[in-house]
Amino acid sequence: MSDALDEAIDSWHAHYVGGGQLPCALTLVAQEGALLAARTAGLANVEDEVPCEADTIFRIFSMTKPVTAVAAMSMIDDGLLRLDEPVSEFIPAFAELSVNAATDPSRLEPRPARSQMTIRHLLTHTSGLTYGGEPGAVSGLYDQKATNFGVDDGPLTEVVDRLAAIPLLFEPGERWHYSVSLDVLGRVLEIVDGLPLDQVLARRVLEPVGMIDTSFRMSPGKQERLASLYQAAGDGFTRIPEGVGYPGGTEVTTLSGGAGLLSTAEDFTRFATMLLCGGEVDGSRVISSASAAQMQRNHLPGDIAACGEPTFSESTTHGVGFGLGGSVVVDPSVTDWPSSRGEYAWGGYASTAFLIDPVRRCTAVFFTQLIPSSRYPGLRRGLREIVARFVPPFEHH
Protein backbone atom coordinates (compact mmCIF):
# COMPACT_ATOMS: atom_id res chain seq x y z
CA MET A 1 0.00 0.00 0.00
CA SER A 2 1.12 3.56 -0.69
CA ASP A 3 1.25 6.21 2.04
CA ALA A 4 0.81 8.92 -0.61
CA LEU A 5 -2.33 7.23 -1.96
CA ASP A 6 -3.76 6.83 1.55
CA GLU A 7 -3.04 10.46 2.36
CA ALA A 8 -4.62 11.69 -0.87
CA ILE A 9 -7.80 9.69 -0.22
CA ASP A 10 -7.95 10.84 3.42
CA SER A 11 -7.58 14.47 2.36
CA TRP A 12 -10.29 14.06 -0.29
CA HIS A 13 -12.61 12.39 2.21
CA ALA A 14 -11.92 15.11 4.78
CA HIS A 15 -12.94 17.82 2.32
CA TYR A 16 -16.40 16.33 1.88
CA VAL A 17 -17.03 14.57 5.19
CA GLY A 18 -15.20 16.98 7.48
CA GLY A 19 -16.79 19.84 5.57
CA GLY A 20 -20.26 18.50 6.35
CA GLN A 21 -21.13 17.78 2.72
CA LEU A 22 -21.23 13.98 2.99
CA PRO A 23 -22.18 11.76 5.93
CA CYS A 24 -19.48 9.20 5.17
CA ALA A 25 -16.99 8.01 2.58
CA LEU A 26 -15.37 4.67 1.80
CA THR A 27 -12.82 4.19 -0.97
CA LEU A 28 -11.12 0.97 -2.10
CA VAL A 29 -8.40 0.99 -4.77
CA ALA A 30 -6.95 -2.29 -6.05
CA GLN A 31 -4.48 -3.24 -8.78
CA GLU A 32 -4.89 -6.65 -10.43
CA GLY A 33 -7.04 -7.53 -7.42
CA ALA A 34 -4.34 -6.62 -4.87
CA LEU A 35 -5.54 -3.94 -2.44
CA LEU A 36 -3.66 -0.64 -2.68
CA ALA A 37 -5.85 1.44 -0.35
CA ALA A 38 -8.91 0.99 1.87
CA ARG A 39 -9.96 4.20 3.62
CA THR A 40 -13.10 5.19 5.49
CA ALA A 41 -14.38 8.45 6.99
CA GLY A 42 -17.49 9.70 8.72
CA LEU A 43 -20.63 8.04 10.00
CA ALA A 44 -22.87 5.47 8.31
CA ASN A 45 -25.63 6.67 10.62
CA VAL A 46 -25.01 10.23 11.76
CA GLU A 47 -27.86 10.40 14.26
CA ASP A 48 -26.79 7.27 16.13
CA GLU A 49 -23.06 7.93 15.63
CA VAL A 50 -22.44 4.61 13.85
CA PRO A 51 -19.05 4.77 12.10
CA CYS A 52 -18.58 3.91 8.45
CA GLU A 53 -16.68 0.62 8.35
CA ALA A 54 -15.15 -1.59 5.67
CA ASP A 55 -18.19 -3.90 5.84
CA THR A 56 -20.87 -1.18 5.82
CA ILE A 57 -23.66 -1.98 3.35
CA PHE A 58 -24.80 0.70 0.89
CA ARG A 59 -27.63 1.21 -1.60
CA ILE A 60 -25.79 1.24 -4.92
CA PHE A 61 -28.74 2.30 -7.11
CA SER A 62 -27.59 2.42 -10.77
CA MET A 63 -24.39 0.50 -10.10
CA THR A 64 -26.85 -2.42 -10.22
CA LYS A 65 -26.90 -1.98 -14.00
CA PRO A 66 -23.50 -3.52 -14.82
CA VAL A 67 -24.34 -6.46 -12.53
CA THR A 68 -27.51 -7.10 -14.55
CA ALA A 69 -25.44 -6.71 -17.73
CA VAL A 70 -23.02 -9.43 -16.59
CA ALA A 71 -25.96 -11.79 -15.97
CA ALA A 72 -27.11 -11.12 -19.54
CA MET A 73 -23.63 -11.84 -20.90
CA SER A 74 -23.61 -15.10 -18.95
CA MET A 75 -26.78 -16.09 -20.82
CA ILE A 76 -25.19 -15.07 -24.12
CA ASP A 77 -22.22 -17.31 -23.28
CA ASP A 78 -24.69 -20.14 -22.67
CA GLY A 79 -26.39 -19.57 -26.04
CA LEU A 80 -29.68 -18.57 -24.38
CA LEU A 81 -29.66 -14.96 -25.55
CA ARG A 82 -28.27 -12.89 -28.44
CA LEU A 83 -27.39 -9.19 -28.43
CA ASP A 84 -29.44 -8.42 -31.53
CA GLU A 85 -32.44 -10.53 -30.55
CA PRO A 86 -35.73 -8.55 -30.37
CA VAL A 87 -37.03 -7.92 -26.85
CA SER A 88 -40.47 -8.96 -28.14
CA GLU A 89 -39.20 -12.55 -28.47
CA PHE A 90 -39.37 -12.67 -24.68
CA ILE A 91 -41.94 -9.96 -23.84
CA PRO A 92 -44.78 -10.03 -26.41
CA ALA A 93 -46.07 -6.61 -25.25
CA PHE A 94 -42.99 -5.06 -26.94
CA ALA A 95 -43.95 -6.42 -30.38
CA GLU A 96 -45.93 -3.35 -31.44
CA LEU A 97 -44.12 -0.32 -30.09
CA SER A 98 -45.00 3.29 -30.78
CA VAL A 99 -42.80 6.39 -30.94
CA ASN A 100 -43.77 9.92 -29.98
CA ALA A 101 -43.56 11.84 -33.27
CA ALA A 102 -44.45 15.26 -31.82
CA THR A 103 -41.87 17.96 -32.47
CA ASP A 104 -42.97 19.56 -29.20
CA PRO A 105 -41.94 17.07 -26.43
CA SER A 106 -44.76 18.34 -24.20
CA ARG A 107 -47.25 16.81 -26.64
CA LEU A 108 -48.04 13.20 -27.52
CA GLU A 109 -48.38 12.13 -31.16
CA PRO A 110 -47.73 8.37 -31.20
CA ARG A 111 -46.95 6.56 -34.44
CA PRO A 112 -45.92 2.93 -34.95
CA ALA A 113 -42.21 2.26 -34.44
CA ARG A 114 -40.32 1.34 -37.61
CA SER A 115 -37.82 -0.98 -35.90
CA GLN A 116 -37.68 -3.53 -33.13
CA MET A 117 -36.05 -2.96 -29.76
CA THR A 118 -33.19 -5.42 -29.14
CA ILE A 119 -31.20 -6.71 -26.18
CA ARG A 120 -28.25 -4.57 -27.34
CA HIS A 121 -30.47 -1.47 -27.24
CA LEU A 122 -31.35 -2.25 -23.62
CA LEU A 123 -27.72 -2.76 -22.63
CA THR A 124 -26.59 0.49 -24.27
CA HIS A 125 -29.49 2.86 -23.40
CA THR A 126 -30.37 3.28 -27.08
CA SER A 127 -33.81 1.68 -26.68
CA GLY A 128 -35.93 4.84 -26.82
CA LEU A 129 -37.03 4.34 -23.21
CA THR A 130 -36.55 7.04 -20.55
CA TYR A 131 -37.14 7.70 -16.84
CA GLY A 132 -39.99 9.47 -15.09
CA GLY A 133 -39.36 12.83 -13.48
CA GLU A 134 -37.96 14.37 -16.66
CA PRO A 135 -39.50 17.10 -18.84
CA GLY A 136 -41.92 16.01 -21.55
CA ALA A 137 -45.15 14.12 -22.03
CA VAL A 138 -43.56 10.66 -22.36
CA SER A 139 -41.72 10.91 -19.05
CA GLY A 140 -44.92 12.12 -17.41
CA LEU A 141 -46.61 8.87 -18.41
CA TYR A 142 -43.90 6.92 -16.58
CA ASP A 143 -44.86 8.70 -13.37
CA GLN A 144 -48.59 8.24 -13.97
CA LYS A 145 -48.35 4.54 -14.78
CA ALA A 146 -45.71 3.58 -12.17
CA THR A 147 -43.10 2.38 -14.63
CA ASN A 148 -39.98 3.73 -12.87
CA PHE A 149 -39.36 0.34 -11.20
CA GLY A 150 -39.69 1.67 -7.68
CA VAL A 151 -39.68 -0.90 -4.87
CA ASP A 152 -43.48 -1.15 -4.75
CA ASP A 153 -44.47 -0.79 -8.43
CA GLY A 154 -45.44 -4.47 -8.60
CA PRO A 155 -44.02 -7.62 -10.21
CA LEU A 156 -41.74 -7.03 -13.20
CA THR A 157 -44.15 -8.78 -15.57
CA GLU A 158 -46.82 -6.15 -14.80
CA VAL A 159 -44.49 -3.14 -14.86
CA VAL A 160 -42.96 -3.98 -18.24
CA ASP A 161 -46.37 -4.62 -19.81
CA ARG A 162 -47.51 -1.16 -18.65
CA LEU A 163 -44.28 0.30 -19.96
CA ALA A 164 -44.64 -1.27 -23.41
CA ALA A 165 -47.86 0.69 -23.96
CA ILE A 166 -46.08 4.05 -23.48
CA PRO A 167 -44.58 5.65 -26.64
CA LEU A 168 -40.80 5.65 -27.01
CA LEU A 169 -38.85 8.92 -27.14
CA PHE A 170 -37.23 7.85 -30.42
CA GLU A 171 -36.70 4.88 -32.71
CA PRO A 172 -34.64 2.10 -31.09
CA GLY A 173 -30.97 2.57 -31.97
CA GLU A 174 -31.41 6.19 -33.03
CA ARG A 175 -29.56 7.80 -30.13
CA TRP A 176 -28.43 7.42 -26.51
CA HIS A 177 -30.70 8.32 -23.60
CA TYR A 178 -30.42 7.11 -20.01
CA SER A 179 -33.41 5.02 -19.06
CA VAL A 180 -35.09 2.03 -17.40
CA SER A 181 -33.60 -0.21 -20.12
CA LEU A 182 -31.69 -2.43 -17.69
CA ASP A 183 -34.87 -2.89 -15.66
CA VAL A 184 -36.62 -4.23 -18.75
CA LEU A 185 -33.60 -6.46 -19.32
CA GLY A 186 -34.08 -7.78 -15.78
CA ARG A 187 -37.51 -9.08 -16.81
CA VAL A 188 -35.99 -10.72 -19.92
CA LEU A 189 -33.49 -12.51 -17.66
CA GLU A 190 -36.33 -13.80 -15.48
CA ILE A 191 -38.05 -15.24 -18.54
CA VAL A 192 -34.88 -16.88 -19.90
CA ASP A 193 -33.93 -18.56 -16.61
CA GLY A 194 -37.48 -19.12 -15.34
CA LEU A 195 -36.52 -17.62 -11.97
CA PRO A 196 -37.10 -14.31 -10.14
CA LEU A 197 -34.38 -11.74 -10.85
CA ASP A 198 -32.83 -11.97 -7.39
CA GLN A 199 -32.21 -15.68 -7.95
CA VAL A 200 -30.93 -15.09 -11.49
CA LEU A 201 -28.35 -12.55 -10.29
CA ALA A 202 -27.36 -14.70 -7.31
CA ARG A 203 -26.78 -17.79 -9.46
CA ARG A 204 -25.07 -16.13 -12.41
CA VAL A 205 -23.13 -13.27 -10.80
CA LEU A 206 -23.19 -12.79 -7.04
CA GLU A 207 -22.29 -16.32 -5.97
CA PRO A 208 -19.56 -17.00 -8.57
CA VAL A 209 -17.97 -13.58 -7.93
CA GLY A 210 -18.16 -14.07 -4.16
CA MET A 211 -20.38 -11.04 -3.48
CA ILE A 212 -21.59 -12.37 -0.13
CA ASP A 213 -23.22 -9.11 1.05
CA THR A 214 -24.95 -8.06 -2.18
CA SER A 215 -28.72 -8.50 -2.49
CA PHE A 216 -32.05 -6.77 -3.11
CA ARG A 217 -33.07 -7.11 0.53
CA MET A 218 -31.05 -7.12 3.73
CA SER A 219 -31.07 -10.35 5.70
CA PRO A 220 -32.06 -9.74 9.35
CA GLY A 221 -28.58 -10.37 10.76
CA LYS A 222 -27.01 -7.66 8.61
CA GLN A 223 -29.51 -4.85 9.23
CA GLU A 224 -27.25 -2.96 11.63
CA ARG A 225 -24.58 -2.72 8.90
CA LEU A 226 -26.84 -0.82 6.48
CA ALA A 227 -25.88 2.85 6.08
CA SER A 228 -28.62 5.46 6.38
CA LEU A 229 -29.63 7.36 3.26
CA TYR A 230 -29.30 11.15 3.24
CA GLN A 231 -30.56 13.91 0.97
CA ALA A 232 -28.67 17.10 0.18
CA ALA A 233 -30.17 20.12 1.97
CA GLY A 234 -28.63 23.57 1.97
CA ASP A 235 -24.91 23.23 2.70
CA GLY A 236 -25.39 19.81 4.32
CA PHE A 237 -27.86 16.95 4.33
CA THR A 238 -30.89 15.48 6.08
CA ARG A 239 -31.70 11.86 6.77
CA ILE A 240 -34.35 10.19 4.60
CA PRO A 241 -36.82 8.29 6.84
CA GLU A 242 -36.57 4.51 6.90
CA GLY A 243 -38.91 2.88 4.39
CA VAL A 244 -38.61 5.67 1.81
CA GLY A 245 -36.90 4.81 -1.46
CA TYR A 246 -34.94 1.56 -1.33
CA PRO A 247 -35.34 0.57 2.31
CA GLY A 248 -33.03 -2.40 2.43
CA GLY A 249 -34.63 -4.29 5.28
CA THR A 250 -38.21 -4.69 4.09
CA GLU A 251 -39.80 -6.81 1.40
CA VAL A 252 -39.34 -5.59 -2.17
CA THR A 253 -42.16 -6.22 -4.66
CA THR A 254 -40.31 -4.82 -7.70
CA LEU A 255 -36.83 -6.23 -8.36
CA SER A 256 -35.04 -3.38 -10.13
CA GLY A 257 -32.25 -4.63 -12.37
CA GLY A 258 -31.36 -0.98 -12.92
CA ALA A 259 -31.20 0.33 -9.37
CA GLY A 260 -32.20 -2.13 -6.64
CA LEU A 261 -29.09 -3.75 -5.16
CA LEU A 262 -27.41 -3.27 -1.80
CA SER A 263 -23.68 -4.00 -1.65
CA THR A 264 -20.35 -3.42 0.08
CA ALA A 265 -17.20 -1.81 -1.31
CA GLU A 266 -15.37 -5.12 -0.98
CA ASP A 267 -18.06 -6.99 -2.91
CA PHE A 268 -18.07 -4.43 -5.68
CA THR A 269 -14.27 -4.43 -5.85
CA ARG A 270 -14.47 -8.18 -6.49
CA PHE A 271 -17.03 -7.52 -9.23
CA ALA A 272 -14.89 -4.83 -10.88
CA THR A 273 -11.78 -7.03 -10.60
CA MET A 274 -13.67 -9.84 -12.34
CA LEU A 275 -14.34 -7.56 -15.33
CA LEU A 276 -10.78 -6.21 -15.30
CA CYS A 277 -9.43 -9.76 -15.35
CA GLY A 278 -11.51 -10.88 -18.33
CA GLY A 279 -14.52 -12.37 -16.57
CA GLU A 280 -12.70 -14.37 -13.90
CA VAL A 281 -11.92 -13.74 -10.22
CA ASP A 282 -9.98 -16.00 -7.83
CA GLY A 283 -10.18 -18.86 -10.30
CA SER A 284 -13.96 -18.57 -10.71
CA ARG A 285 -15.08 -18.02 -14.31
CA VAL A 286 -18.20 -15.79 -14.38
CA ILE A 287 -18.39 -14.81 -18.06
CA SER A 288 -16.12 -15.52 -21.02
CA SER A 289 -13.18 -13.24 -21.74
CA ALA A 290 -14.89 -12.33 -25.02
CA SER A 291 -18.02 -11.19 -23.15
CA ALA A 292 -16.00 -9.21 -20.61
CA ALA A 293 -14.17 -7.47 -23.46
CA GLN A 294 -17.42 -6.77 -25.29
CA MET A 295 -18.91 -5.10 -22.20
CA GLN A 296 -15.92 -2.76 -21.98
CA ARG A 297 -15.98 -1.78 -25.68
CA ASN A 298 -17.88 1.24 -27.05
CA HIS A 299 -21.10 0.16 -28.82
CA LEU A 300 -22.10 3.65 -30.02
CA PRO A 301 -21.14 5.16 -33.40
CA GLY A 302 -19.22 7.86 -31.52
CA ASP A 303 -19.18 9.32 -28.03
CA ILE A 304 -22.37 9.99 -26.06
CA ALA A 305 -22.15 13.69 -26.91
CA ALA A 306 -22.34 12.87 -30.63
CA CYS A 307 -25.24 10.50 -29.97
CA GLY A 308 -27.57 13.12 -28.56
CA GLU A 309 -26.52 13.83 -24.95
CA PRO A 310 -23.82 16.55 -24.75
CA THR A 311 -24.03 16.46 -20.95
CA PHE A 312 -25.05 13.77 -18.50
CA SER A 313 -25.28 14.03 -14.72
CA GLU A 314 -22.36 16.17 -13.54
CA SER A 315 -20.09 16.21 -16.59
CA THR A 316 -19.94 16.56 -20.34
CA THR A 317 -19.91 13.37 -22.39
CA HIS A 318 -17.22 14.30 -24.91
CA GLY A 319 -14.78 11.43 -25.29
CA VAL A 320 -17.06 9.02 -23.44
CA GLY A 321 -18.90 6.24 -25.23
CA PHE A 322 -21.04 3.46 -23.80
CA GLY A 323 -20.36 -0.25 -23.56
CA LEU A 324 -22.76 -2.80 -22.13
CA GLY A 325 -24.05 -1.55 -18.78
CA GLY A 326 -21.40 1.14 -18.28
CA SER A 327 -19.53 4.05 -19.88
CA VAL A 328 -16.30 3.61 -21.84
CA VAL A 329 -13.67 6.30 -22.50
CA VAL A 330 -12.95 6.46 -26.23
CA ASP A 331 -10.86 9.66 -26.34
CA PRO A 332 -9.00 10.62 -23.13
CA SER A 333 -7.85 13.92 -24.67
CA VAL A 334 -11.33 15.47 -24.48
CA THR A 335 -12.84 14.02 -21.28
CA ASP A 336 -13.65 16.25 -18.30
CA TRP A 337 -11.27 14.26 -16.10
CA PRO A 338 -7.87 12.56 -16.38
CA SER A 339 -8.72 9.23 -17.96
CA SER A 340 -7.33 6.21 -19.77
CA ARG A 341 -8.62 4.89 -23.08
CA GLY A 342 -10.99 2.03 -22.35
CA GLU A 343 -11.85 3.12 -18.80
CA TYR A 344 -15.14 1.42 -17.88
CA ALA A 345 -17.22 3.10 -15.19
CA TRP A 346 -20.59 3.97 -13.73
CA GLY A 347 -22.16 5.49 -10.64
CA GLY A 348 -25.31 5.47 -8.56
CA TYR A 349 -27.95 7.98 -7.44
CA ALA A 350 -26.58 8.05 -3.86
CA SER A 351 -23.23 9.44 -5.16
CA THR A 352 -21.47 6.06 -5.37
CA ALA A 353 -19.04 5.34 -8.22
CA PHE A 354 -16.61 2.80 -9.59
CA LEU A 355 -14.08 2.65 -12.41
CA ILE A 356 -11.88 0.11 -14.12
CA ASP A 357 -8.64 1.51 -15.59
CA PRO A 358 -7.14 -0.93 -18.12
CA VAL A 359 -3.83 0.97 -18.39
CA ARG A 360 -3.15 0.96 -14.65
CA ARG A 361 -4.90 -2.43 -14.34
CA CYS A 362 -6.72 -1.02 -11.36
CA THR A 363 -10.21 -0.69 -9.93
CA ALA A 364 -11.53 2.08 -7.69
CA VAL A 365 -14.79 1.96 -5.74
CA PHE A 366 -16.25 4.91 -3.83
CA PHE A 367 -19.29 4.55 -1.58
CA THR A 368 -21.34 7.10 0.36
CA GLN A 369 -25.13 7.68 0.76
CA LEU A 370 -26.16 11.13 -0.46
CA ILE A 371 -28.81 11.87 -3.06
CA PRO A 372 -28.83 13.25 -5.68
CA SER A 373 -25.48 12.29 -7.18
CA SER A 374 -25.33 15.59 -9.05
CA ARG A 375 -25.07 17.59 -5.78
CA TYR A 376 -21.25 17.75 -5.88
CA PRO A 377 -20.04 17.74 -9.50
CA GLY A 378 -16.39 17.38 -8.47
CA LEU A 379 -16.85 14.27 -6.35
CA ARG A 380 -16.38 11.58 -8.99
CA ARG A 381 -13.77 13.66 -10.76
CA GLY A 382 -11.83 13.65 -7.48
CA LEU A 383 -11.75 9.86 -7.44
CA ARG A 384 -10.40 9.77 -10.98
CA GLU A 385 -7.77 12.44 -10.22
CA ILE A 386 -6.49 10.41 -7.26
CA VAL A 387 -6.21 7.28 -9.41
CA ALA A 388 -4.45 9.19 -12.18
CA ARG A 389 -1.93 10.79 -9.80
CA PHE A 390 -1.17 8.01 -7.37
CA VAL A 391 -1.67 4.69 -9.19
CA PRO A 392 1.15 4.09 -11.71
CA PRO A 393 0.67 2.15 -14.94
CA PHE A 394 0.83 -1.56 -14.26
CA GLU A 395 4.11 -3.33 -15.03
CA HIS A 396 3.96 -7.05 -15.80
CA HIS A 397 6.70 -9.00 -14.08
Question: Mind sketching the topology for me?
Answer:
Layout: H1 3-18, E1 24-31, E2 34-45, E3 50-51, E4 58-59, H2 64-77, E5 98-100, E6 110-112, H3 119-124, H4 137-144, H5 156-164, H6 181-193, H7 197-209, E7 230-233, E8 236-239, E9 262-263, H8 265-276, E10 280-281, E11 284-285, H9 289-295, E12 311-312, E13 315-316, E14 320-322, E15 327-329, E16 344-347, E17 353-357, E18 362-367, E19 370-371, H10 378-390
Parallel strand pairs: 7-19
Antiparallel strand pairs: 1-2, 1-18, 2-3, 4-9, 5-6, 7-8, 10-11, 12-13, 14-15, 15-16, 16-17, 17-18
Helix pairs in contact: 1-10, 2-6, 2-7
Task: Give a structural overview.
There is one protein chain. The protein is α+β, with helices and mostly antiparallel strands. Helix content is 28%, strand content 18%. The strands form six sheets. An eight-stranded antiparallel β-sheet has the order 3-2-1-18-17-16-15-14, sandwiched between helices. A three-stranded mixed β-sheet has the order 8-7-19, with no helix packed on it. Strand 12 and strand 13 form a beta hairpin. Helix 1 runs antiparallel to helix 10. It starts with a helix and ends in a 7-residue tail after the last helix. The mean pLDDT is 94.
